[in-house]
Amino acid sequence: MTRLYSHSELDSADLLVDAVYESSGDGGLAGEPISKILPGSGNMGGFRDAGRGSRKNFVVLFSTGEDKDWPDSLDLTNGKFVYYGDNKTPGHELHHTVRGGNKILRSVFASLHSEKNKRCEIPPFFVFKKNPTRNGPRSVQFKGLAVPGFPGLAATEDLVAVWKSTESQRFQNYRAIFTMLDVATVARPWIAELSSGNNLGPNAPAAWRSWQTTGRYAPLRANPTISIRSIDQQTPDTSIKREILLQVWKFFKGAPLSFEVFAARIFQMTDSRVIVDEITRGSVDGGRDAIGRYALGLADDPIYADFALEAKCYRPAQAGLDAHSVGVKEVARLISRIRHRQFGVLVTTSVVARQAYQEVRDDRHPIVFITGTDIASILIKNGFNTPESVLVFLQNQFSQ
Q1: pLDDT number for residue 288
Q2: Domain check: are 137 and 252 in the same one?
Q3: The total number of structural domains that make up the chain
Q4: Rounded to an integer, what distance in angstroms lies between the CA atom of residue 74 and that of residue 63?
Q5: CA distances from 8 to 16, 135, 186 (A)
Q6: Cα 321 from Cα 316, distance rounded (Å)
Q7: Which positions ≥6 away from 168 have C-beta within 8 Å?
Q8: Global model pTM greater than 0.90
Q9: H/E element, 369
Q10: Which of 221, 214, 137, 139 is nearest to 179 (CA)?
Q11: Does residue 301 share a domain with residue 170?
């Protein structure tokens, strides 16, 4: 069960990864929890820095997890955290933001990649995510201690200015990549040392001290204890994702052949190394709606893993109706068509039934499942973040 700190405990609470810290019950800014746990950080905004001038004692990165245009994400398996900057409206230069968050990003990544060792100028980053509770509408969950950069990632890849457009106006924002350090608990004594400007005091966590002194990352990697996603985990968890998925299903429910083309495109959107060679004809597909390759190794000398893809445009859960799930029979059909050294991909607007999912994982069949929630998330990540923009995309690309 998740550890929950009440609002009255915040002044003395340690920071535990994935623990929840409650706000006051009235939902007012004065009862916001982060400023109580980390004095000096403020109680508003995605960036909350403590310390005077350019040398910060620490920085808080707060994410609601609900920004469809700038979807922050944490990969629990490898400890990679993607966070977007604070230039989120047109009419502003990349670094001219109210909170100055993008200036902070520019500064710390410049220090990270300096020819001289300037890691000492980089503050620790504390990552929190919105997590309302029954007794605290502004409650948050602590996700971990982060540092800029990621193992093996080039200096040209960990901080990138990306373009967006809204209402026909273009503007830039940063996409920053951090590493969550293998630090389970941040103790109060280190927080006190940080507030005094000493980030390498005697209570500094070992993973932070090692990164500061050697530059070696110790990511917080968390392999899943189970490999089967529940029906809820395969179902969109926000209203915008549900609306986007419903738009997709309604568009293709009478056009299964067009959905096969869309399913192949969705898989391509997950990774630039996916190559779709052929959308097979319905009468001779042999159980495969598309075939292709996944590139491995060096860009100028790759090897390829072949895959077979099957698409199922089944009804997602809606209006009190359960999802029309993909069952054992449909999954077995794909498995039977996979040849030696191939893998399979099943794309559905619905969900995969537990028994089918269980059998695939227990028998270690190489099958990738892309379900309803994944389709919505992939579209959002690729800029199609409203039902209207999704419909335009579908009409332009997949109308018969």
Answers
A1: 65
A2: no
A3: 2
A4: 11
A5: 17, 12, 19
A6: 8
A7: none
A8: no
A9: strand 367-370
A10: 221
A11: no
d(CA 23, CA 39) in angstroms, rounded, equals 15
Q: What CA–CA distance (Å, rounded) separates 351 from 357?
A: 10
Measured distance CA(79)–CA(313) in Å, rounded: 33
281 pLDDT tier (thresholds 50, 70, 90)? low
What CA–CA distance (Å, rounded) separates 218 from 230?
30
pLDDT tens-digit profile of 325-376? Answer: 999 999 999 999 898 889 999 999 999 999 999 999 999 999 999 999 999 9
Q: Which domain holds residue 19?
A: 4-214
Does 371 map to a domain?
A: yes
Residue for token pair 């994400």:
73
* 67 closest CA partner among 179, 219, 181, 173: 173
Q: Are 190 and 22 in contact (CB under 8 A)?
A: no
First vs last C-alpha separation in the chain: 50
Residue type present at position 83: Y
Tell me: the pLDDT tens digits for 94-151?
A: 888 878 899 999 999 999 999 887 899 999 999 999 999 999 999 999 999 999 999 9
Domain-located, residue 362 = yes
Evaluate whether 101 touches 41 at the Cβ level (below 8 Å): no
pLDDT at 254: 86
Percent of the chain's residues with pLDDT above 90: 73
Q: Of 80-84, 95-99, 300-304, 375-379, give the lowest mean pLDDT range.
A: 95-99
Q: Using DSSP bridges, classify how beta strands 20-21 and 4-5 pair: parallel, antiparallel or unpaired.
A: parallel
Q: Where residue 77 sits, what CATH number does that domain have?
A: 2.30.280.20
Residue 311 CA: distances (Å) to CA of 356, 359, 380: 16, 19, 20
